[in-house]
Amino acid sequence: MAQARYKRILLKLSGEALMGDQGYGIDHGVLDKITSEVKEICELGVEVAIVIGGGNIFRGLSAAAKGMERASADYMGMLATVLNALALQNILENKGVVTRVQSAIEMRELAETYIRRRAVRHLEKGRVVIFAAGTGNPYFTTDTAAALRAMEIGAEVIMKATKVDGVYSADPMKDKTATKFDSLTYLDVLRKDLRVMDATAISLCMDNNLPIIVFNLNVSGNIKRIVLGETVGTLVTGRNNA
């Protein structure tokens, strides 16, 4: 059996990733693909935690920009992440992967309330833990929740899933001259405003020297390749490895 490079990872999924080519909601084909890849790395003995966004259902920042009160909009966005977490849990468990959803907002009928020690214990027992409802606080993104939870559970890396194959100097979908970075420092990301994750999340990772790998979720097998130590996407660390 192949040897995994990482023992414990945190996978950050955007809500948009779940909707595939649809304009809204959850594409079950995409969900099936993601869960199959998660199952594969679990079978390698990797402990997997997931933070899921809610942008396929509701975006708090967009709603606030249209006049909704920001805190209320953000709480609605947190509830959208719970819907996605439950969908992810259901498909994973249909594949035989034991899963727990932990929510930063208490809702005992649907999910466990987030408790760090309990989350770590689940991971040690080989269960996939899905963190829902962000940090439980308005004005913080699920990127920040991912950085915070990764540090709390002792993850070795954050794997940030996107629709492109790494970090570029500009949006490669709009600018054909955009160049891809193989590696970056946290300061590079902040200074160049590269939007890998929000500034709070990047600062948290920088302060705790937690590496981030930005990769294309749409390429089959990328999650496993990263776990096995292959060079995929863009690596963000405290020093430039280029």
What does it look like?
With 242 residues, the protein is α/β, with parallel strands linked by helices. The protein has one domain: Acetylglutamate kinase-like (Carbamate kinase, 3-Layer(aba) Sandwich), CATH 3.40.1160.10. It contains 9 helices and 11 strands. It has helices at residues 15-18, 28-42, 60-65, 70-94, 116-124, 142-153, 186-191, 199-208, 222-227; strands at residues 8-13, 47-52, 99-103, 112-113, 128-132, 157-162, 167-168, 180-181, 183-185, 212-216, 234-237. The strands form 2 sheets. A 9-stranded mixed beta sheet has the order 4-3-5-2-1-6-10-11-9, sandwiched between helices. The chain has a two-stranded antiparallel sheet with strand order 7-8. Helix 2 (28-42) packs across helix 4 (70-94). It is globular. The two termini are 31 Å apart. The model has no long low-confidence stretch (mean pLDDT 93).
